[in-house]
# Entry
Amino acid sequence: MTSIPMSAKKPAHIPAQNLPLPVQIISTVLFGAFGILAVIFAFNYSLFGGIVVAAIIGWRGGFAPGAWGPPPQMPQLDNIMPLAPEAQQRSSGNASFDAYRSETLRRLEEEQENFENFLGRLRAAKDKSEFDDFLDRRAARVRRATADTDVIDDATD
# Structure
C-alpha cells in the first residue's frame, strides 16, 4: 500500500493575495452595501425572507475576491502508482514474503475483478426488474383503459 504524505495536503481556504489592498477594500464595501440592500428588500417582501437572507449573508461572511476556489484534490492512487512501478517488482530480501505478497496481490486483483463483474450483473438484474415492473404497470393501465372504454360502449348501446 502506498502512503500519501500529509504535508502534500493544502489548506481548504487560501486567502486572496493577488489583488491589491484597495481593490479588496472596495470589494468588501460594495459587498456590504449589497448585503444591506438585499436584507432590506427581503424584509420588505417578507419577515421570513429577510431573516433567511440576513442569515445567509452573515454566515457567508465578507467578500474576498479570489479566495473561494475549488477545493484542492488529493492525488488519486491511480495517478500515484505509475510514479513507482518498480515497487511491485522490488524484492524485500525474503523469498517467502515476496511469494506471499505476489500471491496476495494476484488474489486481490482476481477478487476485485469478480466483485466488479458481480456488481455489473446486479445492476443489470435491477434494471431488468425495474423495466419489467414498468411494463407490467403499463399493461395494467392499458387493460384498465380498454375495460373502461368497453363499459362505456356497453352503456351507450
In short: The CA atoms of residues 123 and 129 lie 10 Å apart.
